[in-house]
Each structure stands twice: as structure tokens, then as C-alpha cells.
Amino acid sequence: MATRIVMKHKETGILKNGYYGFSWTTLLFGFFPALFRADFLTFIGSFVILVIIGLCTYGIGLLLVSLIWAFMYNKYYCRKLLEKGYVLAGAPNENILAASALGIIPPDPRSPR
Fold this sequence. Notes:
transmembrane helix, membrane, transmembrane, 113 residues, HrgC protein, three-stranded antiparallel beta sheet, alpha+beta
């Protein structure tokens, strides 16, 4: 089950929801969650890869690739947001849990946001 974490851009102050954990929406809807999150490059790339794998394996490989991608997508999306300048902006304990799940150094809970 995915867990939501609020992320804030350092310079613009724009807030976005990041998620970590298993993505049921990605498992059920394939590449469309990337489109709904305005992650267009990932949407196009995953669509092309899924079509190629589907054609090469007569659709059987889609199940395996979709399952693997459902485990990976939320973490991938959050890391892309971090690279774009977003920081974890939830409560201090939420930030520590999210940082641990994403494999990043947790922020100091005593420092101002």
C-alpha cells in the first residue's frame, strides 16, 4: 500500500504529493498514473516498453513487468521530484519514514522548513 508524503519545491513553494510503497494504481492501470501525475517522459517510455514486451511475449510478459513496475514506480517518482528541487514537507516523523523508505538522508527534525 502506498503512503502519501507532501513534497514542497524549495524555490517556488509548489506542493506535490509524493508516494512510497507498492502502487496499486500502477499495477491496475499500467502507465496511466504517470500521465495523471504529469510525468510525461515516464508515461511515454513505459508505454513503449510495455508495448514492445507485450508484442514479444504475446502479452504474458506484461503481467510480470507490470508487477515489478508497481513495486518501483512510487519510489522512482519521489526521487525524480527530489532531483527537481522538492523536499519532504510533512510532519517530522513522516519525513523520517519517507526518507528511510526512499533511501535518502532524513532531514533534521529540529531545523526549520
